[in-house]
Each structure stands twice: as structure tokens, then as C-alpha cells.
Amino acid sequence: MYLTDGEISDSLAAPLNGYPQGEDIKLHFTTQGFSGARLQLAEIMLRELDQELEFLDGGLYDNRLKNKNWIIERQYHPSCNFLARVGGKAGRYHIELSIGAALIALSASVELCSLQENSPTSELATQYSNGATSIESLFPGVTEPAQVGEEALGLALDVCLLLYLHEVAHAILGHCDYNSYNRSASSDEIRALEFDADFNAGAMFGLWVQTLPADYRKSKDFEGFLKRLVRASFLFSTILKAVSGRSANYHLPTNRMIAFLSGGAFAFDRTDKTPKFESDDEGDSYWSEKVSIHTESIKAALERSTLKEFLANERDVENDFHEIFNVTHGVRDSLKDGPLMKFRLNE
Ligand SMILES: [Zn+2]
User: Fold this and answer.
1) Which residues surround ligand 1, an ion (CB under 5 A)?
2) Cβ-Cβ contacts under 8 Å for 232 (sequence gap 6 or more)
3) Helix or strand or coil: residue 250?
4) 247 C-alpha vs ligand 1 centroid, how far in Å?
5) What separation in Å is there between the alpha carbon of 23 and the centre of ligand 1?
């Protein structure tokens, strides 16, 4: 019994031992024709991601799981779909992240970064042919791994960290246990669980990601770090919407971003990174300004990209936002104060 995010895989193959490289990648992406620089780039992405997840897993275990004798294991799923899933119960969980999730995140990041104004990687903006999107056609024009630049690699890694932390959140908040205890959860309940996982993934991102050891991954200042959370949560939600079609499980990307950021805001407030606000209104306008500043260039790039059809229209966003306030918040509160209390990892 799994909670699954993304495009359900047709492959029931066993998870891999260790992180995928070389033949493991080629074997599952036969239609992409990976070789040379593109294969090297895929290997770099998976290696960097694995190192970061090892680091975060260590912190999670030491700070949260060890005392309660909980375990969360992590493996890679040999699927080329954008997919992650978490299963288990009673303090024993496992998370599987697909190879496709890492490489699709990279491909979409490469495209969007290349389409931003004055992009140093603008030569990669026109790699796609025959109407393929950057989710279907993985960085076909790359001839040197270094060509994609640290901005795109960093954005892709951040997207994968949010996906992983979202699965961690499903485990530690008791969602997996609740799911096996109540197999007929309503769609409002499922959306509330997804919203809850997004909020907590944002909080974990805010608390831990700036401590990653690699120099090129350290933001110079708080504003730079905040920008990463805004952009990664926007791209993550956009990819998930694109690959899960008209899934009713999720709110729209612009609004999911608010769930991730609310979690981030909670973490930043706890660690005194943001100003103290006199009122909720003051806090709301601070955050909406940050969202607007930091999404401007990636939204403009998305409008020019092969993924433009996944940009939701404003009226849908507004209706979906009301749905969050009128339904999802209440359902989430009643789950949190009710059945999830006995399943979750308590402090
Ligand atoms: Zn989920």
C-alpha cells in the first residue's frame, strides 16, 4: 500500500540498490538515446541528488527519527516516469524516487533557465522538435554537461528535494498509516493530505536545505535562499500537474506554491530569518510580494516554453484558492486534530 505522487509507473520492477548510473539509466530510457554528454549529465544529476539525500536522511534520522525508533528507507525506482511513492506503517517506511523524477526535473529546469531573460544558456532554448515538451524529450541538445549551468542543476535538485521531503512528510505526519486504515478517503481528504505534506516539505526545506555541504549549493543570503524555495515549489507543482493530467488530488501550482511557502515561512519565523509582523495582513503582503518578485522570470519563461499549456488561467487559480480556504483547510484541521494524532511522529 503506497501513497503515490506523479505518473503511476507501468513498470513493477524491483527498486535499485544504490543510485543509478550508466546502464541502469540507459536501460530504462531506451527512447531517449542517452550516450556521451547527455548520459554524463544524467549521471551527474543522480549522483549529486543522492549525496544531498544521504545528507538530509542523516539529519532527519539524528534529529527526528532515532529517539522514536522510526526508520525511513530510500531507494530508486527504475521508472522513467516522474514518480515518487511512500509505503509502510507504524514507524517503518520506505520511499522510492524514480530515475525519471530526477531527469525530468533537470530537463524542465534546463529549458526554463535557458528561456529567462539574458540567460547565459540561451542556446539550449530551442532543443525540442516535433512538438515534444521538455518532459518528454530530455535535454536533447546538450553536448557538454557544463553547458546547462549551475542555476538549472540547482533548480532541478531543489525540485527533487521538495518531492522527497513531501514523501517524508507523508510518512512522519501519519498519512501512510491513515491511508491503510481508511482506504476510502474522499477526494477532499486526499487533497488535504497532499496540502499537509506540501506545507511540511516547505518547512523541512526551510530548516535544512541551506545546511547542505556543497559550496555551489549554498545561497549567499536569505533572499537568495527564499528565491530557491519559491522557484522550486512552482516548478515542482507545474511538473506534477503536467504528468498527472487532470488529477483532482492536487491544488493548482500557484496555490500549491503557497502551501510550500507557508511551511517555509513557519521555519523562517522559528529561526528568526524573517521580520516579525504586526498583523496577519502585514505578513500576507510580505509573502505575496516575495512570490511575485521571485516567480516573475520563471513564469515568463514558462509562457515561452514547451510546457506553456500547463500554466493555469487566472480564474481557475482564484476558484482553486477559494476551495483551499473553504474546504481543504477545514478538512486538514479535522484530520490533524483527529485520526492523524495517533499515527504521526510526535516531537
Ligand atoms: Zn503526496
Assistant:
1) 5, 194, 197
2) 155, 158, 159, 161, 162, 205
3) coil
4) 12
5) 30
Q: How many domains does the chain have?
A: 1
- Cell numbers 540507459 correspond to 26
Mind listing the pLDDT tens digit of every residue in the chain (347 residues)?
Answer: 788 898 877 666 788 888 999 998 998 898 999 999 999 999 999 999 999 999 999 999 999 999 999 999 999 998 899 999 999 999 999 999 999 999 999 999 999 999 999 999 999 998 998 899 999 999 999 999 999 999 999 999 999 999 999 999 999 999 999 888 777 778 889 889 999 999 999 999 999 999 999 999 999 999 999 999 999 999 998 998 888 865 667 888 888 888 999 999 999 999 998 888 999 899 889 998 999 999 999 999 999 999 999 887 777 888 888 888 899 999 999 999 988 989 999 87
Range of the domain at 317: 2-343
For residue 347 the three cell numbers come to 516531537
How far is it, in rounded angstroms, from Cα 134 to Cα 127?
9
Distances (CA, A) of 211 to 98, 157, 260: 25, 14, 19
